[in-house]
Write a structure and sequence with these properties.
- The protein is mainly alpha-helical.
- The chain folds into two domains: 3-150, Orthogonal Bundle (Helix Hairpins), CATH 1.10.287; 175-367, no CATH class.
- The chain is 68% helix and 0% strand.
- The chain is built from 13 helices and no strands.
- It has helices at 3-24, 36-53, 59-95, 105-116, 129-174, 180-186, 191-215, 231-248, 255-274, 290-300, 311-322, 325-335, 355-367.
- The N and C termini lie far apart (68 Å).
């Protein structure tokens, strides 16, 4: 028996099974850098993104990027299966006798594939007990691997659906592309209580995202099924609104905004760490000039009459922005997702929900 080849096969199988166990079964984020799936997503996404940047921004690029998430999972399962077949093939090759029917490495890999998928051709029957034992172990491993793969995909898509269902309601309120100003205008007639209840739902949404995207970071590559929507853009807009409420609201009106802000920011940090995306050094913050600040103030006052828009409140907004925008900009750039503006210059601040404005907007959405 060639001990070196046998141990190499054991190592390949053990590393592959450990990687699959951590991704599929272990419900916690793993920060170890030496992982098969980490390098797989790192390099395949890099290659996919390089091709995407050659396309003009628009529908073709979005459709191309949307394919990566599901396709990468299929490719990862294929990579795991190939590594397991190759590893068991190395072990079989190390223990095979010279008078065996097939003594080449390729021949043993074919025998390994037969055992892994439990095909049962029976063309080659190992003579050694150790070789027969390896066939039994590989058959059980292959059966369990296929079962785990089938059971894993529904869980992944369940998390994806729970993430995206709230984005649909969000798009109706914040526009597409979204903006903090339009989201505040939507809540103008509901008052501070309605806004706080709505922010409470986003605190729960952030909790779901921490649980799902930190454990299954590949979900970050899944684009929203509706054009013009993205989970990063929605997260950014709600963070912007929370920052405005925290900076200028009365003391009794900051609690829910603070809780939602902290939950969303932790989500941003957890996903960035899971994807190993560092904060953007020297990133240019999203534009928030004096004109935009005035428009945001006019949108906040109908919700909270005592909302402060003095220089101190604006400085507080800038400090809050600096605590999440470097991570936000870096993550959006890595995933090739656009970030929303604070205000939408294409939308007039006055009369947005007048009869004429609403009818025109619905007509434009229907045409789109």
């Amino acid at each position: 028996m060639n001990s070196t080849v046998f141990l190499l096969g054991v190592l390949v199988v053990a590393v592959t099974l450990l990687d699959a166990f951590e991704v599929v079964l272990l419900p916690r984020a793993i920060q170890r850098r030496m992982r098969v799936n980490r390098h797989f997503f790192k390099w395949t996404w890099w290659a996919w993104a390089q091709v995407a940047t050659k396309l003009e921004p628009g529908r073709r690029r979005d459709d191309f990027l949307a394919v990566y998430g599901p396709l990468s999972m299929v490719a990862l399962f294929g990579l795991w299966g190939s590594c397991l077949i190759g590893g068991f093939g190395l072990m079989q090759w190390a223990v095979v006798r010279a008078d065996y029917t097939s003594t080449t490495l390729l021949g043993q890999i074919i025998v390994s594939g037969d055992a892994f998928f439990t095909l049962g051709y029976g063309d080659n029957v190992p003579g050694e007990r150790l070789a027969r034992f390896l066939v039994i172990v590989e058959a059980g491993t292959g059966f369990g691997f296929i079962a785990l793969t089938i059971g894993y995909l529904p869980v992944l898509y369940q998390h994806f659906a729970r993430r995206d269902v709230q984005l649909i309601e969000f798009a109706f309120r914040a526009g597409s592309p979204p903006s903090a100003e339009e989201l505040l205008d939507w809540h103008a007639h509901g008052g501070a209580d309605a806004l706080e209840r709505w922010l409470g739902r986003w605190e729960s949404w952030a909790g779901d995202l921490i649980e799902s995207h930190a454990v299954y970071p590949m979900l970050a590559f899944y684009r929203s099924q509706h054009r013009g929507q993205s989970w990063v853009g929605s997260l950014a807009t709600v963070l912007d609104v929370c920052a405005l409420v925290i900076a200028g609201a009365e003391d009794g009106r900051r609690q829910q905004a603070t809780a939602t802000f902290l939950a969303l920011r932790r989500t941003l940090f957890e996903v960035s760490d899971a994807l190993h995306v560092p904060p953007a050094a020297g990133a240019v913050a999203r534009e928030l000039d004096e004109h935009a600040r005035r428009r945001l103030g006019s949108s906040m006052h109908p919700i909270q009459a005592r909302w402060q828009d003095d220089p101190g409140a604006m400085q507080a907004v800038d400090r809050l922005r600096s605590s999440y925008e470097p991570r936000l900009i870096a993550l959006a750039a890595y995933l090739l997702l656009p970030l929303p503006r604070w205000v939408n210059p294409a939308v007039l601040a006055a009369g947005r929900f007048s009869r004429e404005a609403v009818v025109q907007r619905l007509a434009e959405d229907d045409a789109t």
